[in-house]
Automatic annotation (TrEMBL):
Organism: Azospirillum thiophilum
Coiled-coil ranges from the UniProt annotation: 37-92
Lineage: Bacteria, Pseudomonadati, Pseudomonadota, Alphaproteobacteria, Rhodospirillales
Name assigned to this protein: Uncharacterized protein
Transmembrane regions: 12-36
Keywords, in A-Z order: Coiled coil, Membrane, Transmembrane, Transmembrane helix
Length: 110
């Protein structure tokens, strides 16, 4: 019979089976490693995006904080000026009241 293969001995069969098993295991490991790497890359990309968003939020909050500090300082200065003006008005009213009392006393004496 032409084209017939000679019978394999059991050692050759085990060798071929071992090679096929090794190739199969290698392929499974390569696919698993590729999947793990892809997952890690996606997770890293998500973390990078979250870090960028957090950085933008921190920058925005810092700017708002600075604006609030500036406004607080402006309000504090305005409050001080109003307090000074109120004190001055109170002193003028007190002086005017003292002058009126003095004038009234002088009229009574004359």
């Amino acid at each position: 019979m032409g084209g017939d293969f000679p019978p394999m001995d059991w050692f050759t069969g085990i060798g071929i089976f071992g090679i096929l098993a090794g190739v199969t295991i290698s392929l499974v490991v390569l696919v698993a490693v590729g999947s793990i790497r892809r997952s890690l890359n996606e997770a890293s990309a998500r973390q990078s995006q979250q870090i960028r968003k957090l950085t933008e939020t921190v920058v925005t909050l810092s700017a708002q904080h600075q604006a609030a500090q500036t406004r607080i300082q402006q309000l504090t200065d305005a409050n001080r000026r109003l307090s000074d003006e109120l004190t001055a008005i109170g002193e003028r009213l007190s002086d005017a009241d003292a002058v009126r009392r003095a004038a009234g006393t002088a009229r009574l004496l004359h």
